[in-house]
Amino acid sequence: MLDSISFFRIIKTGFVNFWRNWLLSSAATMVMTITLVIFAVLFLLFALTNYSIITIKDTIDVSVYFKHAAEEQQILSIKTELEQNSKIKRVDYTSALDALKNFRDKHANDPLITQSLNELNDNPLPATLNIKANKLEDYPEIADSLKNDRYDGFISEINFEDTRPIIERLNKILSFIITAGIILVVVFSLIAILVIYNTLTLTIYNRRQEVEIMRLVGATNGYIRGPFVVEALLYSFFATVITCLLVSPIFSNILPKIALFVNPGISVFNQNIFSFWILILLLFITSAILSVISTFLAIRKYLTV
Amino acid sequence: MIKFENVVKYYGNSKALDGVNLDIHHGEFISLVGMSGAGKTTMFKILLGEESVDRGKVLIDGIDISEVRKQDMPLLRRRIGMVFQDMKLLPARTAYENVSFAMEVCGFSRNIIEKDVPKILSIVGLGHKAKFFPDQMSGGEKQRLAIARALSHRPVLLLADEPTGNLDEINAGEVLELLLKINRLGTTVILATHAVELVNKIKKKVITVKDGKIVREQEIGKYNLTSS
After folding, report:
1. Are residues A76 and A135 in the same domain?
2. Among the CATH numbers 3.40.50.1220, 3.90.1150.10, 3.40.50.300, 3.90.480.10, which is that of B1-79+159-228?
3. Start and end of every ABC3 transporter permease C-terminal domain (chain A) (predicted)?
4. Which of A24-28, A127-131, A151-155, B13-17 has the weakest average pLDDT?
5. Position A163 in a domain
6. What distance in Å separates residue A218's CA from the closest CA in chain B?
7. What's the rounded mean pLDDT across residues B44-53?
8. Do A214 and B105 touch (CB under 8 A)?
9. How many helices (H) and strands (E) does chain B have?
């Protein structure tokens, strides 16, 4: 166990070594910054793609169009029945009258459509039920359950078939992105460990005499390793700060534009795609873990006895 | 204090120590002599726990080194001071800092360090050079600084591996005089050397090592390479 004198000495020595070897410290910090920038960009891409897909998924539903002969009571009873299904998130009913009103409101500025509608005696629009499922993959089953004989007399059309290819493609894209993201993070973590390990090996090699003397005069392994760990944490801290400065323009300029393009009318920050603070914390934790692992590996051979 | 019991040590297929038996008592001054590669440095490395023995036992104050746990090895090393031919000083630190550094890593408090370092530096005759860097000192001064560092954690045993190897006659004499002074103050000293003149001059116990074996032990010895 380290006593308090040794603990404060380790912290102090770590800081002093960081400043005294500022050139090597800068190099190590830069290497870590490059790694973190790659991580941050990957993270942003992953989060943005994920968000885009979730947004697109949210616009997908199954629309059930009813025959004009179907009574509102019958439609509402089908709605209640559907709401019992655990795979269904929400069912919205739009009566034929509401559908016409919505249509008129939407095309209020188009005199040709308004005039055409006025010339019609009957409401051409049917009553509809919009069904949203909990999961993307449940849509085909829900659509199939509506093709039941019991509903034949009321339902004129189920529009799910139009969106089926889109849903299937989205599912494939999403699973590809998740797999690719995991592979990239693992590969970059290994590369980062190797690069940081080499940089730290250089730092430790540079001070091997100091390490040797410490060992010979009876310093414990924890005491010898301690200042290097403190230094590695300092590299992580400064690398995180620099990375945040580099990626913040992406947050403040580019990301909102992409988010608006994907889903007009929303703001990235208001919608909490993710918090910048969480990203900073994640970057620091990632770099701290990587650098501490690398320090332990790099100094191991100097502490063999 | 130190006991080697039938110690055998191999480096690959080559036998570095071949059945070494040795008994060193508290307060002794021993000159361990022999040609390069005779096994002197290996004996020191075993005492410091840097190398393990292949057969036999090495005891320090009754403790078998091979049974000391890895995490307790630093505590054993704090009882031993080591001086090297190449001194192993930190060039970027002053004489004062080279000594205080060794005390810091051993966990001495700031007060003790501030009190002890000037004392140790004056024992080795470097009181006036506390703020000098190693590069600003002569070979003899550097070696005396290395001895000061080895003494800083108050060891009961001082191992000096060819400390005069790189020094001229005058400086070598000064370093030897210093080692004798440390011995008079109560520290057991083992000096590994092949400097015939020095060993013959001090008239202390001489142990001669050849091809990994102890070939002669003389209470008031003379180093005679030809007869060994």
Report:
1. yes
2. 3.40.50.300
3. 182-303
4. A151-155
5. no
6. 4
7. 90
8. yes
9. 7, 10
> Percent of chain B scored above 90 by pLDDT?
48
Instruction: Give SS3 for A13.
Output: helix
Q: What is the pLDDT of residue B106?
A: 83
Choosing among A217, A224, A302, which should be mutated to test the B contact, i.e. which has the most B CBs within 10 A? A217
The neighbouring-strand residues paired with B63 are: B60
- Name which of A209, A219, A221 is nearest B90 (Cβ-Cβ): A209
Range of the domain at A189: 4-57+169-303
What are the residues facing A93 on neighbouring strands? A129
Find the distance separating the first CA and the last CA of chain A, reported in whole Å: 19
Each residue of A194-216: b (16+ CB within 10 Å) or e? ebbbebbbebbeebeebbebbbb
pTM over 0.80: no
* Residue A262, pLDDT score: 63
Of B78, B92, B110, the CB nearest to A218: B78
Q: Are A174 and A47 contained in the same domain?
A: yes
In this structure, chain A runs to a length of: 305
CATH number of the domain that residue A90 is part of: 3.30.70.3040
Of A20, A212, A217, the CB nearest to B102: A217
Output DSSP code: residue A138. G
Of A144-148, A222-226, B30-34, give the lowest mean pLDDT range.
A144-148
Query: Are the Cβ atoms of B88 and A213 closer than 8 angstroms?
Result: yes
Distance CA A35, CA A29 (A): 10
Average pLDDT over residues A293-300: 86
The pLDDT confidence band at residue A270, using thresholds 50, 70 and 90, is: very low
Read off the pLDDT of each residue in A30-37 and give the average, rounded to a whole number: 85
What's the mean pLDDT in B40-65? 91
**Virtual CA dihedral for B144, B150, B156, B161, nearest 10 degrees?**
-70
B112–chain A Cβ distance below 8 A for any pair: no
Q: Domain for residue A177, yes or no?
A: yes
